[in-house]
Write a structure and sequence with these properties.
330 residues, alpha/beta, UDP-N-acetylmuramoyl-L-alanine:D-glutamate ligase, 9-stranded mixed sheet, 4-stranded mixed sheet, globular
Amino acid sequence: MTDILVAGETLVDLLPGAGETLRDVDGFTHRPGGAPANVAVGLSRLGAPPAFWTRLGDDPFGDFLRETLDEEGVPDALSRRVGGNTTLAVVSPPGVDGRRFRFYGSRDVTFGFDPDAVPTDALASASWVHVGGVALTHPRGRTAMREVAAVADERGCTVSFDVNYRPDLVPEGDRDAVVEAIRDILGDTDVAFASDEDVAATGISSREGEDLARDLLDFGPHTAVVTLGSEGAVAASMDAAPWGETTARHGGFRVEAVDATGAGDAFTSGLIRRLAARTDGTTPSTAAETDLADALAFANATAALSVRDRGGMTALPDREAVEAFLAERA
């Protein structure tokens, strides 16, 4: 399997107990989270543990997160412990309109990546680098993630980027700088991940589905993947893609959903796992690993299994579970 490096935040999700709104829930359960951290753990469970550049507070929640990453087989060589409190992402109860996440704690600790500490040596040995978009909401995080993507691109890595735009984390007056950073990183990206909602909030495009995927290709990626929630996902690619010029769509799988937190991250880890096996020059173990449509099916199966339990990271499936699920649904 190819060497993968993931860059981005690790934080704590607070999942609400019973209640119609946050003001009247009966308590919270803490779970490990953060989109890039979910992707890193998802890849590890799928048999491809990545290097992971992240930041952890020196508080008890930081201890909890480091222990979790250790247990999940994600090495600690690139993680940095810094003074301060871990960011908490408070998840809204199911069915509540409006903001799904509310963030509390030190933005500097979790998102303030040091541009001078970009792991250039690790990038030199990686063949696939995945960058999370939430850190772009912090000034230092923007600079650092731009550098990660640029260095990875210069060194010939396949670069994937999850737009994951969070307006609630953008300080007043910083929106233009965040959107500019998204455009810059897309220019160094090979495979872009986004949702209609993410991109509409940036103003980059107001289109949806396949049309949005085509718009994203104009910024530089050879492949753009748009997740469609319960409707699955669609992808578009250009001639430069290792899988050629194509459009692929998969409608997802019907399951009894308990908690959709982190489903998009599960999807991302599943798709990277399949596509990375295609781009590292090795012979794919199955024909499915050479085909973008079948890679979407694998990613959607990973996401479907992840929503059947509570917690974004803790509900991520392993490769055997995904393959068994696909065999059943075939």
